[in-house]
Each structure stands twice: as C-alpha cells, then as structure tokens.
C-alpha cells in the first residue's frame, strides 16, 4: 500500500482505548512495524503480534509475543487462542474472518479499520479485494454487540475508511455491560 501511514496510533484505537485494561490480552493482526503493539504494551496489555514481515517484527520482541506468519498462504497460526482484544488496521484478507471472530474471548473487543470502497478514486489500495464493501463490517459482526461503526472519508492522507468496534457475547456476564460513550 502506498499510503503514508502515520506512526501515531489510529484515532479509532484511541477512541476505544477506555475499554482496555492492564493485563488484558491483545492480538494485533498484520501489525506492521508495531505502532499499535507499542500503544497497547505501554498500557499494560499482553500483546501478541503477527505479520509476515520478520524485519518489521524484530524490533517488537521486547514488547510482545511475535509471530512471523503468512496469514494468506498458511493455516491460521493461533488456532485455539482467545484474546480480550483483536485489532486489525489497514489490512484485509476476507478468508480470515472466521479465525478472527473465533479469536475473541467472551466479551472480547474487535477493533477493525481499513480502506473501503471509494478509495480507488483517491489512491491505493484500489483493488476490490482490499476494499470493504458498504456495510461489510456490520454484516461480518452481525452476531457481536456493535458499539461503534463508521464508513466515511478521512482527509490526511485522503482515504475512504470503514471501521467498527464490536464486543463478543459473554454468557457469564451478570449485568448489562455499561459501555461509556464519548459525548
Ligand atoms: C498497511 S500495513 C498495516 C500495518 C499496521 N496494521 C498498521 O496499521 O500500522 C499491512 C501489513 O500487512 C502485512 N501483511 C500483508 N500480507 C500479509 C500476509 N499474507 N501475512 C501476514 N501479514 C501480511 C504487511 O507485512 C504489513 O505489515
């Protein structure tokens, strides 16, 4: 992808960070050079980071469990593992959906943000296989509790983005979870 992605954390992760607590487990899928690994580790989460780029992961070993894995050409490397947070930003490989959803612990939070249809008019990625369709994240998360969803345009750099925050069911939860909302 040719977009210059900021080294700062995604505002979408920052917006939902109040749901995170020290000691939680987090999985950052296709983590790249680790801007979110550092953000989460600094907040006391136990982070597992996966990417195929061994060089990018090398600098993260002191802060996370790192797994060099091809997520598209090999079996899911974390079968049976569950996480309190599953985070994916700027990456889309649709066959992973079942594995990502199965990786959520009861009550676990899915934060997903990536390029959406329309992005082909402003740059890359431009291929349909890398762009979310309108409402796609809502459909994928239909069995989760969706607490935040946006589908729109961001100015710097110009890009069409869709993003969701959704919680897995927790049958053991005694009372309705009070999700603090901004504003
Ligand atoms: C645009 S970067 C996003 C990095 C990070 N999530 C972020 O938002 O800063 C996409 C990442 O996906 C990784 N990736 C692409 N194809 C992959 C594959 N088949 N298996 C594992 N990682 C892959 C790349 O190595 C790259 O780090």
- What is the percentage of strand-forming residues? 25-35%
Report how far the terminal alpha carbons are from each other: 34 Å
Number of helices: 5
| Count of the separate structural domains | 1
CATH superfamily: Vaccinia Virus protein VP39
| Shape label | globular
Ions, cofactors and other ligands present here are: S-adenosylmethionine
- Give me the CATH architecture, please: 3-Layer(aba) Sandwich
* Tally of strands: 7
Domain Methyltransferase: 27-104
Protein name: Class I SAM-dependent methyltransferase
GO molecular function, one term: methyltransferase activity
Pfam families: Methyltransf_25
What does this structure look like?
- The protein has 183 residues and is an alpha/beta fold.
- It has a single domain (22-167), classed as Rossmann fold (3-Layer(aba) Sandwich), CATH 3.40.50.150.
- Helix content is 16%, strand content 29%.
- It is built from five helices and seven strands.
- A seven-stranded mixed β-sheet has the order 3-2-1-4-5-7-6.
- Strand 4 (83-89), helix 4 (97-102) and strand 5 form a beta-alpha-beta unit.
- The longest helix is centred in the first third of the chain and has 8 residues, at 35-42.
- The chain is globular, with a radius of gyration of 16 Å.
- The N and C termini lie far apart (34 Å).
- The model has no long low-confidence stretch (mean pLDDT 95).
- The structure holds S-adenosylmethionine.
- S-adenosylmethionine (SAM) is lined by residues 1, 5, 30-32, 35, 51-53, 56, 70-72, 89-91.
- Keywords: Methyltransferase, Transferase.
- Residues 27-104 form the Methyltransferase domain.
- GO terms for molecular function: methyltransferase activity.
- This is Class I SAM-dependent methyltransferase.
- InterPro entries: Methyltransf_25, SAM-dependent_MTases_sf.
